[in-house]
Amino acid sequence: MSCTPLLHCRARLFAALLTTVAGAACADPGYYVVTPYDNEGARIADFRYWTVKPANQTETVWPELGLGYGVNSRWTTELSLSWEGSAHEAVRPATLNWQNDVLLTQGQYPFDLAVHAQFIKDRDAPHQLGVNWGPVFQTEVGPTQINFNLFFDQVLRAETPTPTKAQYQWQLRQHNGAALQVGLQGFGELGRWNRWAPVDKQSHRAGPAVFFDERLGDARTLKVQAAWLVGKTFGQRGHMFTLRAHIDF
């Protein structure tokens, strides 16, 4: 099945799984909450893995591997490869991705603000280019870290016009001073950015999350986040698992 880069990840994935949603839109690879941090000088080895399982249908898996670098105190960049598969077929190469996160604030306000942009080349649409971009927001209320991101999926170069889609992600994380922490995460797709889809066609998922940060010595740090999400994917009930593990060194 062929689709545009921004339609590739969720569109090809969910349209194949959710037969009632023909031509549904989708977005960038990787379901994990983007957070704004200063990574100056850090090298990042990144592993991401997420699955989606509609009710009574086959689970699809999406592993990703990436290498990143903190260019300076504001800009972190990363290249990653994505694969797609399922319980009935082996994973195969899907997309090549170039992610950039740029901090707009650096501690002068009671919140952090950044801009996220990920450029996507789809294996099945080699002559097209997509981008997932938007603001990244973080603040803290007592021991609770609050994140909210609003992203837009856009095709910069396509054979046919493709509407820009809107999606969101949010996170609540309880800081307790320990390596292991708990919280909540949520993701959703709304449809066209200027004309949302009907409520029964939107996607909204949320669930419990765990976080693990541990120093490994020699300036290396292991960071893991994982969440189990339930809700809707384009109007269909199902569940989703998301995991990101990366070592900063």
Structure notes:
The chain is mostly beta strands and 249 residues long. The chain has a single domain (5-248), classed as Porin (Beta Barrel), CATH 2.40.160.40. Helix content is 5%, strand content 64%. The chain is built from one helix and 13 strands. It has one helix at 5-17; strands spanning 43-54, 60-70, 75-86, 89-103, 111-122, 125-141, 144-157, 165-174, 180-192, 195-196, 203-217, 220-233, 236-248. The protein has a twelve-stranded antiparallel beta barrel. A hairpin with a 5-residue loop joins strand 8 (165-174) and strand 9 (180-192).
Mean pLDDT: 86
Q: Architecture, according to CATH?
A: Beta Barrel
Distance between the termini: 39 Å
SSE topology string: HEEEEEEEEEEEEE
Q: What's the CATH class, please?
A: Mainly Beta
Strand tally is 13
Ranges where pLDDT stays below 50 over 5 or more residues in a row are 1-29
- What structural class do you assign from the helix and strand content? mainly beta
- How much of the sequence is in beta strands? over 45%
What sort of overall outline do the alpha carbons produce when their principal axes are compared?
A: globular
CATH superfamily: monomeric porin ompg
Strand order of the largest sheet: 1-2-3-4-5-6-7-8-9-11-12-13
Main β-sheet description = 12 strands, antiparallel, barrel
- Rg (C-alpha, Å): 18 Å
What is the total number of structural domains?
Answer: 1
Number of helices: 1
Write the CATH fold name.
Porin
* Helix content, binned percent: under 10%
